[in-house]
Amino acid sequence: MNQRCIRLLLLAGMVAMSLGCGGDGDDSASAPLDPEVSALVTASSGATVSTESDSASIDIPAGALADDLTITIVPLPKNSQPDKANLGSNAFEFGPDGTQFAKPVTLTLDLSANVPNGKKAQIAMLEGDSWQSIAGSVVADKKVSAPIEHFSTYVILFVGDETKVTTAECSDLSFSACGGSLTGTWKVVDVCLNQTIDANPFASVPACQSSVFSANIDYQGTIDFGSNGSYRFNVTIGTSSVKMEFSDACLKAATGAAGSDICTTIGQSMGSCTYASGVCKCEEVMDETADTDTDTGTYQTSGSTLTITSAGDSESSAMRYCVQGSRATMEVTDDNDQSVSYLILTKK
User: Fold this and answer.
1) pLDDT tens per residue, range 257-282
2) Which residue ranges form the domains of the chain, and what is each CATH number?
């Protein structure tokens, strides 16, 4: 992702640190562990494999496995896992580790802790010594489910309650992958960033419920998908900006310090903060000079998945997409932080 966008998306977090906003405490006790599970699943019919108390289950549809396979689930105590203060369940090691699926399977875990204020529950996968959120997590009836593409160790992770950022085009976005033909020239309408930014990280403080966080990034350009399997991406990123407003009562309630002093502290992270009439207003405009990104390569589609390979790059990127008439939406996952954005296009 463009470094300017990353900087804009981090500003809210930087301000939160400036105000010294703390979390909800470490409620790290693990729920009782179920026994390990082992079950043979046939590739032709699939099956659902669950722990004894149904604290973890995996729903494998027919055709997801290449061959018949013995599936294992090994429960692991939350206390022994990385970032245990932000976990909402025990961890579960699904095996054989690394097993790939021909189609997504659904993993479901019991939510064994209350979701902290300002956060939400997501399925996350262990990568090294950190957790990576899985796009498409759904919470229902004290359970969290998500589609996964391979076996690993999974857990419920509490992350910042994410908000879509930029223009009104994204405010009512509802995405469901449906596939369709991409051949032709498409105009970029908007990019709906769905990063880990708290819409109001101080909402739990009554005096801060009216605090304002807003951000905008101006995108324009085209994407050409040729009938021969080639593509050309040409997008210009224009002015980026972020605005925040805190009342004096909010700043004092959140920090215990005078609003004018905290406003000065926030200003050290942002381009401009002013304090007047009991309100701290901050605004930063970044890189007003347009920045154009151009990329070419090859693409292919399969069902509702688009796979692109940049020219000179041996690795490919896959994303879900949906074409509905003259409008297309693409779901893009950042490989580094697993954040999700949505690219909205219209047919030229």
Assistant:
1) 788 888 888 787 766 889 988 888 88
2) 37-160 (2.60.220.30), 163-347 (2.40.128)
